[in-house]
Amino acid sequence: MHRQVTPFALVLALGLGSAGLGLAQDSSKEAPAEIQLPPPPSHWKAAQPVGTSAGPVTAEMLAVPSTPPDRWIQYLGNWRGFRHSPLRTLTPESVKKLTVAWALPTGTTGQFEASPVVYGGVMYVTSSYNRLFALDAKTGELLWRYDHKNGENLRLCCGPPNRGVGIAGDLVVMGTLDAWLLAFDRKTGEIAWKVQVADYTKGYSITSAPLVVNDLAIIGVAGGEYGVRGFFDAYEVKTGKQVWRHYTVPGKGEPGADTWAGTSYERGGSPAWTTGNYDPETDTLFWTTGNPGPDWDGDVRLGDNLYSDSVLALDPKTGAMKWYFQFTPHDVWDYDGNTQLFLIDTKYDGAPRKLLVQANRNGFFYVLDRTNGKFLRATPYLEQVNWATIDPSGRPVVNPDAMPKEDAKHRTCPSNLGGMNGSFSGAFNPDLGLVFIPSSEACQVYSKGIGAYQEGLPYLGGLPDTVDATAGKAYGNLAAIDVATGKVKWRYRDNRPMMSGTLSTAGGVVFAGTLEGEALAFDAKTGKVVWRFRAGGGVRSQPIAYQLDGRTYVAIPTGSFTALDSFAAGVTRVPEGGTLFVFALPK
Amino acid sequence: MRRLGAARAVLALAAVALGCHGAAPAREPVAPPESPAQKYLRDPAAVERGHKIFIGTCGAYCHSTQNVERDAPSLFDCEWKHGGSDQQIHDVIANGVPGTRMPGWGQALPQGDDDVWRVVAYLRSASTCPAK
Q1: Which CATH class is domain B36-126?
Q2: What is the complex's ipTM, to 2 decimals?
Q3: 20 to 30 Å CA-CA from A486: which of A47, A401, A563, B110?
Q4: Rounded-to-5 percentages of helix, strand, coil across chain A
Q5: How distant is the Cα of A447 from the closest Cα of chain B, in angstroms?
């Protein structure tokens, strides 16, 4: 579905060139009129070191529960995944005064899904197709830039996004669509090291932001629609040396292999395409996994298909697994388990407890004990969930009508894009005890077929018929969910699926956006819209806030991917094109 | 399609001309050998298997399951970019089309060439050709 130049397009271009060369013999053919200018460079380094007012990013900086307001140094805001700014200046009243401070076009199409990182007064933001920009976070001045030259004919299921960088020491680290990991000197833009994580022609890609835990950068791969063997890796931040790899699908004879019929684990998918979390108190890394392959034909992989659609708890030093919990055993709907995790310490049933909370793509809001993986509760957070109920052990009781069939007619909810989805983030306001979850309300009819496997090609075994989207019935919500009860406190409804990330502020605001091209701010207590800005492009990004020299800024990348939007919500007329908007409160 | 029709007309005229001269001995018309797709078209189970393969392999990301053009062409409108005989359709499925994003599936389908022919049979069964 990606829109890069394909070999086919290349052949066409060469063909036109030949026609032009033949002009002397055949005056009916036209010469190419466009003047071919020399290609621009792809790497602009800083003229002078930038961000020098701040020292290296340390593990202690990453470990603090609430990051100081002059920085945003993790994709999820903190290791706990809160995406909650400590800024009290962003209130339901003050946000009405937000105005555009500066903006930046990325020059790329496809969804602009990044969470910017801000440190030392410099913003580091990645666009679709892996452009990396370093910008003055106050003025937007471009300081350095790198345009990655991805390989041709990328293996992308769902567009060309990148969700951001990790930052550690004096390096920023970016994964690429052609499955490389690159580290840059944050002050100059020089490449410090690069490693090939996987051979992308086998079906792999990287779209997520690395998670930095102590001296490691941890990154997982996408590829669940290509029958890959999913994994995530840890690399030494300083050198790029690989420290460990954790496969999400067992090999022959390994624990869990008997949950796959025959040798189906060899094409078992279960990618690890989102950013994980880390709990320093228990020294536990949490990582989630996606769908088993093939997506919709489970007959060839009978069994629970471990460790697909799961959360894994691991030792970050070795990658060894401590425990796992599988949300959707034997998934045949593409309900990846890798939506955002929240590590929340709160009272549960009257006693303090370390919780792991997730609005899963399968439509249920899960609460686990993160010290041992014990299932505590699952409640629907969508308005439409009919594929299963959850039994007291946490295992789904599947509605037989919802199973994909050759002659499928049942309208099954949620869609394969889920309620929530790993490509966008929620947020948690610890003062209110509310988690804010954007979601899609769109059901589908799931058909099952016979999927033929070839390395590097889609391996699907069926398809979802987007009946709601086609009929114009797909819509979305931003829901505020009370962690204590699992109940929805308020919902904001949009007439298209809500597929932007969110940002919560200590001042009581939630930022999000719509596919129709509006950035929105909500009163966190009531869900009332308190600010809106017509960005033009659909919002698929993860907003952030920061404060420099006493001025408060909110950054919201905009720009969506028409093909995916149309799949999710029905044909869209909103044009593509990435633009980063940075808003500011008056001084 | 018009070109094919014109070619048939020329052949028919040629046959008539030969007949008028009476020089060639009269022969019984010989039907071309039946393609495996035609055999499978009479077997509902084979057509259904072709349908399953289409749903599971061809129709999710690339070709539409209905008569709709995507990046990949519709396969239900009887417009064949690379030849419309059973054998030509088979060859495109089995070998792919160089220079395009259509890969060959001859070695990948579970029952090999037989499955390729079942897909051809399914496409024939599900196509809606415009009236001539």
Answers
A1: mainly alpha
A2: 0.86
A3: A401
A4: 10, 35, 55
A5: 7
